[in-house]
Amino acid sequence: MVFERKNPSFALCGLNCCLCPRFNTEGSSRCPGCGGPGFTVVHPTCAVATCNTKHDSVEYCFQCSEYPCKKYQEESDRDSFISYKCVKRNFDEAKRDLARYESELALRYSILKLLLERYNDGKSKGLYCLVANDMPMDELPALIERIKEIPDGIDGKEKAKRVRQEIVALEKKLGIEFKLRK
């Protein structure tokens, strides 16, 4: 079965694929996003895609006539490569205004790309992906403005260290933690 979708950045199941470390990597472990080119090679047995073909074959689960099904009635307490904490919120926002949600997701993705291009020390990708995914949208631009004040002349490890310090300060301020729940 070939499974293809119009927007592989925002998954059928509500995950923000473009904010996942596997989407933002090179090589054979790269994921093309939900329904992206080669998706069925990387994920040959996606239960959500299978369920979708048996039901309404919608673009997003929140559009299914059976939503919220058992899968979405309770928030997941475990994460994979990307946080599931935001799935319900993602769906609620996308259901209200899909174009606006996709625009916000594109902004989150551009912020993630900036973090990865300018401040990645080779160990921070997972953290940056969680920050781009889980941080309240109104806090992200301020974080980027503070990070842009880090001088260009310092080495990559020091830049990444300072970015992590800014993120830790925001975690304390907001009372949240950017960490996967296993």
Task: Explain the overall architecture.
- The structure is a single chain.
- With 182 residues, the protein is mainly α.
- The protein has one domain (17-174).
- It contains eight helices and no strands.
- Helix 4 (87-96) packs across helix 5 (98-119) and helix 5 runs antiparallel to helix 6.
- It is globular.
- The relative contact order is 0.13.
Question: Could you provide a short overview of the structure?
Answer:
The protein is an all-alpha fold. It has helices spanning 39-42, 47-54, 70-73, 87-96, 98-119, 125-134, 140-148, 156-174.
Keywords:
182 residues; single chain; mainly alpha; globular
What is the string of helix and strand elements? Answer: HHHHHHHH
Rg result: 17 Å
Strand content: under 5%
Structural class: mainly alpha
Number of strands: 0
Arithmetic mean pLDDT? 91
**Number of domains as seen in the coordinates:** 1
Q: N- to C-terminal separation?
A: 30 Å
Helix content: 40-55%
Biggest pleated-sheet summary: none
Write the layout of secondary structure elements.
Elements: H1 39-42, H2 47-54, H3 70-73, H4 87-96, H5 98-119, H6 125-134, H7 140-148, H8 156-174
Helix pairs in contact: 4-5, 5-6
